[in-house]
């Protein structure tokens, strides 16, 4: 098990790296995190919802993601409340204090998921959450030391040296643990190190003298391009030089599934910026309104911040606008919440797409495939292209009479994609467009290289660049290279033999 001294210490990445190494060494490996709190989620082939960190780690193992790897997913929908998802299905919305009292009832679900993985895999690499030394949360812990005790897992403790104070992080964490918990920690990993290791060595020696636990690795700060899901992600704050094609993603307060836009970041010709103020918006070639865990609240924030007015103005000046899931709902005419799933009541939308949205009690969770309709406007070259993806949403959006269809999905797996027709009862309308404004419920749309390249070329063409030659880009191949680089870096910076010995292998 990998635990950290704090959030964003690098647990998810190190778990992925160890998963990759053990897989390369010939073992059957699976990741596991009993409870994940994240707004970035994924829909499995069975139509079940799980956190994307375990999806990324499963990719590193070369296996299909399963909700067994993340039996509990918490998706905060307010400062004090969260949606609880167990084994991929919604259990309901609860206040934080109520969940704290309820969580121990989920232990049987955790044990069952883990035991099923344990039956099929040689090694399970478990990820903790936050810090095991949150002394106000230690009672009935199910994700850190409580989880380690549940399955008798040895623990490696990770400290983040990049933020400073790593020795205090590690010593303080251990001092706040019970003796039995301290004894579970078999090694220390220092993460995100920059500089000359020889300068660090005296501190490592003193650390070992203090805690009597060996340091098993000093991992360098890695410049990798791997999906992350943490709200502390550096993607939101990194400085991006404007490239040939400039895309601005609105950083909503409750932004979800921002991994949708990772493929754009992988392209040399594209700059992808996350913006949360009018001054940061500038003059992009395309504005993306992303998914959100609370569409109505984030739409009100958009309105109050002045970004709604700026988006409408940019659209009227010809800037391409694309809404995904919650962003798609915002772009419509109205949003109604009769069951108080989010905000309650009815509010007007931005008014740029011909749809009305009503929030229902049941969540849509499904893998989908379909194709674009015959389009107009700057993205007309997407016409009739096929795609695959997934949907996660509470609302149902209805096309207003006369509205234009962006995407059509099929419900019959034997139906040829290129022959989809929205008038066919076996098809479902899933998106809408109007002039230079487009929207759909489908996540993962841009993972398709054909869709991705067509959008970038279309945006370049709108700037008068008709001859843009894009480098061949295969997202899956790119991901594999990044996982291999991660594994190579870890092999060169940790005592892998000692880690195998700790596991009894």
Which segments are poorly predicted (pLDDT under 50) over 5 or more consecutive residues? none
Mean of residue pLDDT values: 92
- CATH superfamily (homologous) name of the largest domain: P-loop containing nucleotide triphosphate hydrolases
Mind telling me the CATH class of the largest domain? Alpha Beta
- Strand elements, count: 27
What is the strand content?
A: 25-35%
Which fold name fills CATH's third level, the topology of the largest domain?
A: Rossmann fold
Number of domains: 2
Q: What's the shape?
A: globular
Pfam families: CbiA (PF01656), GATase_3 (PF07685)
Active site: 325, 443
GO molecular function, one term: catalytic activity
Protein name: Cobyric acid synthase
Describe the model.
The chain is built from 16 helices and 27 strands. Strand 4 (41-43) and strand 5 form a beta hairpin. Helix 1 (11-24) runs parallel beside helix 2 and helix 1 packs across helix 15 (475-491). The protein is 31% helix and 28% strand. The protein has two domains: 2-226 and 480-502, 3-Layer(aba) Sandwich (Rossmann fold), CATH 3.40.50; 245-467, Rossmann fold (3-Layer(aba) Sandwich). It has 505 residues and is of the alpha/beta class. The two termini are 15 Å apart. It has a seven-stranded mixed sheet with strand order 15-13-16-18-27-26-23. Strands 19, 20, 21, 22, 24 and 25 form a six-stranded mixed sheet that branches. The protein is globular. The model has no long low-confidence stretch (mean pLDDT 92). Belongs to the CobB/CobQ family. CobQ subfamily. The active site is at 325 (nucleophile), 443. Residues 246-450 form the CobB/CobQ-like glutamine amidotransferase domain. Pathway: Cofactor biosynthesis; adenosylcobalamin biosynthesis. Catalyzes amidations at positions B, D, E, and G on adenosylcobyrinic A,C-diamide. NH(2) groups are provided by glutamine, and one molecule of ATP is hydrogenolyzed for each amidation.
């Amino acid at each position: 098990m990998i635990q950290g001294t704090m959030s964003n210490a690098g647990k998810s990445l190190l778990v992925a790296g160890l998963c990759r190494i053990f897989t390369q060494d010939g073992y059957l490996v699976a990741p596991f995190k009993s409870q994940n709190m994240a707004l970035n989620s994924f829909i499995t082939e069975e139509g079940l919802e799980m956190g994307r960190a375990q999806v990324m780690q499963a990719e590193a193992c070369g296996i299909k993601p399963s909700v067994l790897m993340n039996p509990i997913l918490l998706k905060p929908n307010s400062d004090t409340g969260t949606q609880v998802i167990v084994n991929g299905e919604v259990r309901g919305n609860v206040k934080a204090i109520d969940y704290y009292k309820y969580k121990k009832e989920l232990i049987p679900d955790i044990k069952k998921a883990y035991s099923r993985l344990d039956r099929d895999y040689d090694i399970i690499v478990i990820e903790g959450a936050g810090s095991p030394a949150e002394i106000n949360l230690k009672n009935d812990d199910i994700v850190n030391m409580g989880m380690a005790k549940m399955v008798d897992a040895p623990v490696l403790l990770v400290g983040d040296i990049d933020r400073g104070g790593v020795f205090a992080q590690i010593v303080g964490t251990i001092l706040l643990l019970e003796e039995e918990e301290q004894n579970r920690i078999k090694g220390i990993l220092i993460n995100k190190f920059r500089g000359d290791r020889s300068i660090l060595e005296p501190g490592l020696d003193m650390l070992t003298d203090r805690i009597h636990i060996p340091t098993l690795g000093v991992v360098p700060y890695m410049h990798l391009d791997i999906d992350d899901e943490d709200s502390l992600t550096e993607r939101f704050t990194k400085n991006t030089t404007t490239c040939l094609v400039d895309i601005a993603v609105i950083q909503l307060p409750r932004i979800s599934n921002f991994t949708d836009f990772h493929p754009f970041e992988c392209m040399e010709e594209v700059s992808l910026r996350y913006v949360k103020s009018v001054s940061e918006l500038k003059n992009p070639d395309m504005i993306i309104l992303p998914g959100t865990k609370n569409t109505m609240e984030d739409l009100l924030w958009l309105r109050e911040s002045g970004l709604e007015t700026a988006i409408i103005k940019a659209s009227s000046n010809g800037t391409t606008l694309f809404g995904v899931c919650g962003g798609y709902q915002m772009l419509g005419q109205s949003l109604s919440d009769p069951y108080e799933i989010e905000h309650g009541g009815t509010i007007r939308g931005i008014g740029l797409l011909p749809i009305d949205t009503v929030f229902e009690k049941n969540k849509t969770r499904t893998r989908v495939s379909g194709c674009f309709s015959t389009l107009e406007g700057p993205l007309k070259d997407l016409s009739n292209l096929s795609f695959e993806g997934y949907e996660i949403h509470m609302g149902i959006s209805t096309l207003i009479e006369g509205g234009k269809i962006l995407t059509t999905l099929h419900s019959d797996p034997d139906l040829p994609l290129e022959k989809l027709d929205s008038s066919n009862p076996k098809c479902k309308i899933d998106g809408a467009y109007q002039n230079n404004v487009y929207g759909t419920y489908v996540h993962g749309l841009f993972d398709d290289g054909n869709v991705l390249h067509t959008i970038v070329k279309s945006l370049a063409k709108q700037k008068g660049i008709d001859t843009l030659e894009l480098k061949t880009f295969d997202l899956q191949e790119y991901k594999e290279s990044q996982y291999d680089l991660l594994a190579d870096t870890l092999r060169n910076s940790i005592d892998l033999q000692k880690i195998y010995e700790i596991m009894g292998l």
